[in-house]
């Protein structure tokens, strides 16, 4: 971000904003979708812009994964840019799908990086601090984009805000923050692990199902869920897609989930590939379980495999970082071919 202070105009000392996350704009229809996915998800962005104007929002916050991959076509990026240009101001972070190999250092070679350069979105990076002033109210915003080792290494450093130089503070992170551990094979960060944060509101994405705002010790933690439904499991069929409206004053933070207009799950999500291949899915799941047991690797993600091998071999951090950087460069080269 090329600025660290922002002064807002207005007659009151209340900051109003919306938070949305995990849009996954793509020119390719997910296997589960029966509609035109791109048209549908771009309509969601238009709805958010309309709501931001109806609510007189000062800016809009974004939690990462604008795109489903870092090198979507120029045609798709162009349609997206046309909509984002209508927003007052978007402040956000990069998600793992926005990056090559989850390497934040390569952001400039991605479509999201191009959007930042074009002034369509103001991206925040780890360690940056934005102070927003509206009359006698000050708000601090910090952010942690997706990166190597998120939710694994330096969890406190990524999630916990140590100092606040304003009346209120918001922290945005693209990580797997949840109220509790639901699956022992899934790496998550629980709210209990980071509840000492001094941020009044921690906003997160990545976990598509989302969760209602949770208040602990006067601090809020919230994830409104992905803006798009890219799978056809039963929970997604019923899930309401929406944005979080945030109203901040010196003494209070008000949160409201605003659902967007959407079609019924059965009208846009196709479960035939699931229901018609349940036996095959069970076989694959059993096969994957055997592989994981044999190799002690809990994720088939290439980055996780490298990190697991590095742990087993006790390799130095510099060696691991070098390997991951080479992987991200290779992924970038493949996607451009």
UniProtKB/TrEMBL annotation:
Domain of life: Bacteria
Species whose genome carries this gene: Tepidibacter hydrothermalis
InterPro entries attached to this UniProt entry: Calcineurin-like_PHP, DNA_Repair-Maintenance_Comp, Metallo-depent_PP-like
Record domain Calcineurin-like phosphoesterase: where: 15-209
Pfam families found in the cross-reference section: Metallophos
Protein name: Metallophosphoesterase
